[in-house]
Amino acid sequence: MGEQNTGSPDPIRVLLVDDQPLLRMGFRLILEGEDDVEIAGEASHGAEALELVRRLEPEVVLMDVRMPVLDGIEATRRITEAGLNARIIILTTFDLDEYAFAGLQAGASAFLLKDVAPEELVQAVRLVASGDAVVAPRVTQRLLETYVRGLPAGGPAAPPQRDPLLDDLTPRELEVLGAIAEGLSNAEIAHRFFLSEATVKTHVRRILAKLHLRDRVQAVVYAYETGLVVPTQGLDY
Questions:
Q1: Residue 194 CB: number of other CB atoms within 10 A?
Q2: With contact defined as beta carbons under 8 Å apart, do 31 and 14 qualify?
Q3: Which of 2, 10, 53, 212 gives 20 to 30 Å between its CA and that of 192?
Q4: In what order do the strands lie in the sheet with 37-43?
Q5: For residue 204, how many C-alpha atoms fall within 13 Å in the half-sphere facing its CB?
Q6: How crowded is residue 232: how many other Cβ atoms within 10 Å of its Cβ?
Q7: Model-level pTM?
Q8: How far is Cα 124 from Cα 134, in angstroms, rounded to an integer?
């Protein structure tokens, strides 16, 4: 009789949301091959996803954007506003996609291209579930730079107002928030400011709590939207 592995953590529960059954099947086949991932369920539109998130309590949702009944952006917004714990990865067809940007604004933790490599899909699910991930920082930064500089629909001409919540941050926390907005990992932030990674993690947790943000990617979005980070001109990617 084999030993029981009582020390292993519970698997990451993932909800697959896409109106194309073949795409859901492909993601299921990839993720079910991992010992630490479990498919909690599947939905074919956003309204069904919202219901299943409430009922099944997945840690991660892979969310398509264009779906009938309720699209992925509005479903993401409703899941976030309801205070549900699921972290959402938006699925999109190309990286500089205004829908991916809208998904991040609505509360998504990351976005992935639909033709993502299997190992990158698995890694993204793990990182987003962990809560302190940096998911494709340069791609996320490029997306934010493109759309914060000026959405196609046109944005306000006036500079963004400073958020009073920033006054609750210490000078060090402001520095760490700026480094998060650059897409730096905890190890890179620790190296820059001569801190331990444990101290950086503590700073990150306090920043997220004080600013009422879900995770690091939302902190990056926040930094751009509040003007802490000014979009550069002529990024070299």
A1: 7
A2: yes
A3: 212
A4: 37-43, 12-17, 60-64, 87-92, 110-113
A5: 28
A6: 10
A7: 0.75
A8: 9
**For residue 64, what is the enclosing H or E element?**
strand 60-64
Tokens 């070299």 label which residue?
Answer: 236
How far apart CA 216 and CA 39 sit, in angstroms, is 25
Whole-angstrom Cα distance, residue 125 to residue 133? 10
The tokens for 31 are 């993720």
Instruction: List, in sequence order, every residue forming a beta bridge with 111; answer none if it has no partner.
Output: 90
Spell out the per-residue pLDDT of the chain, length 237, in tens.
Answer: 444 444 567 899 999 999 999 999 999 999 998 999 999 999 999 999 999 999 999 999 999 988 989 999 999 999 988 888 899 998 887 665 677 778 888 888 888 888 888 998 998 899 888 875 555 555 666 666 666 655 444 444 455 567 788 889 999 999 999 888 877 888 889 999 999 999 999 999 999 999 988 888 888 888 877 877 766 544 433
* In 107-215, alpha helices (H): 118-130, 137-148, 171-181, 186-193, 197-211
Q: Is 146 helix (H, G, I), strand (E, B) or coil?
A: helix
Q: Virtual CA dihedral for 135, 226, 198, 194, nearest 10 degrees?
A: 100
Question: Between the CA atoms of 32, 113, 229 and 195, what dihedral angle is there, to the nearest 10 degrees?
Answer: 30
